[in-house]
Amino acid sequence: MHSRQRLLTIAWCAVTMVATMLLSHGHLVMREIMQHWPTEESWEGRFENALYTQGGLMFLASLTLGTAMLVRSYFAKLKDEEIARRERVQREQHERSAAVRHEALLERLGSLNGNSPPKKSQASGVRPR
């Protein structure tokens, strides 16, 4: 997964998480408002009571899930870097072994030719003598 795709996925998950928390706790906030309706004189007081009781829970859950997503993305980044490092090392080993095989092949051809390096053909198409 590319970094831009991962960022979009994380943003979408965060938006979905907040919407789910609001929808799942919205009825609890409204219940608190209705319970404190007679005791409070203003909407601000009613809403403040509801937010202190249920809003704190929403905030704590959102903070916990957000932190978990950040920690997960950090470890995913470390894992991707490790995979990239392993691929780079594997590619370098392959290149070195291919170079060694190539050199061995050239030496073998040289020994078959009587210890002279293999001659290159001329551009005119004439075979070397």
Question: Could you explain the architecture of this structure?
Answer:
Keywords: Membrane, Transmembrane, Transmembrane helix. The chain crosses the membrane at residues 7-30, 50-71. Residues 107-129 are annotated as: Disordered. Residues 112-129 have a biased composition (Polar residues). The chain is mainly alpha-helical. The protein has a domain at 1-37. The protein has 2 helices and no strands. It has helices at residues 3-35, 43-112. The longest helix has 70 residues, at 43-112. It is rod-shaped. The model has no long low-confidence stretch (mean pLDDT 76).
Task: Describe, in short, the structure shown.
With 129 residues, the chain is mainly alpha-helical.
Which helices and strands appear, and what pairs or packs with what?
Elements: H1 3-35, H2 43-112
Helix pairs in contact: 1-2
Number of discrete helical segments: 2
| C-alpha-based Rg, rounded | 35 Å
- Give the end-to-end Cα distance, rounded to a whole number of Å: 57 Å
Q: Major β-sheet, in short?
A: none
Q: From N to C, what is the helix and strand string?
A: HH
- The parts where pLDDT drops under 50 for at least 5 residues are none
Number of strands: 0
**Which word captures the global form?**
rod-shaped
Beta fraction: under 5%
Please state the structural category.
mainly alpha
Estimated helix fraction: over 70%
Average predicted local confidence, pLDDT: 76
